[in-house]
Design goal:
By secondary structure, this protein is of the alpha+beta class. Helix content is 15%, strand content 33%. Strands 1-2-5-4-3-6 form a 6-stranded antiparallel barrel.
Length: 144
């Protein structure tokens, strides 16, 4: 597995825009930004941090596929760099949990869209790309 970067930290409330668009995200307040790669949308893996209590059906050490947006949310005139994980096929409350994401594939660079509808089309394309990667990597590859 080629690890491009990772982010670990507490899941905090964001702007609340993802869920209404069909992409609820876990916003990670990264403890160490030095391992976060350049802005973009990445495919990777998401888990609760070791020692964290289970949250619904998710337990520490269980890795789920995720799309992770790293950047300033240019479509919404964002000014703060964020790390937002959309855990694929998972929609449970994770606020306050400590999580880690491992970013393994760049799906696309961050870009500004002219409308929310254009953004949703791009996000659906990202999800299709992620599903292709999931067929190639049905479980989290071991780190080398």
């Amino acid at each position: 597995m080629n690890l491009l970067g990772y982010a670990a930290g507490e899941i905090v409330r964001g702007e609340g825009r993802g869920a209404p668009m069909g992409f609820p995200t876990a916003n990670i307040a990264a403890e160490d930004e030095s391992r976060i790669p350049e802005d973009g949308v990445y495919f990777g893996w998401f888990s609760l941090a070791d020692g964290d209590p289970p949250r619904g059906s998710l337990h520490p050490g269980t890795w789920l596929p995720a799309l992770v947006s790293v950047g300033e949310n240019p479509t919404f005139d964002g000014r703060e760099r964020t790390v937002e994980a959309y855990v694929i096929d998972f929609d449970e409350d994770l606020y306050g949990a400590n999580a880690i994401t491992e970013l393994t594939h760049l799906v696309r660079k961050q870009e500004q869209f002219n409308s929310i509808d254009e953004l949703i089309v791009a996000m659906n394309g990202d999800k299709a790309s992620a599903r292709t990667l999931m067929s190639q990597y049905p479980t989290r590859p071991q780190q080398s």
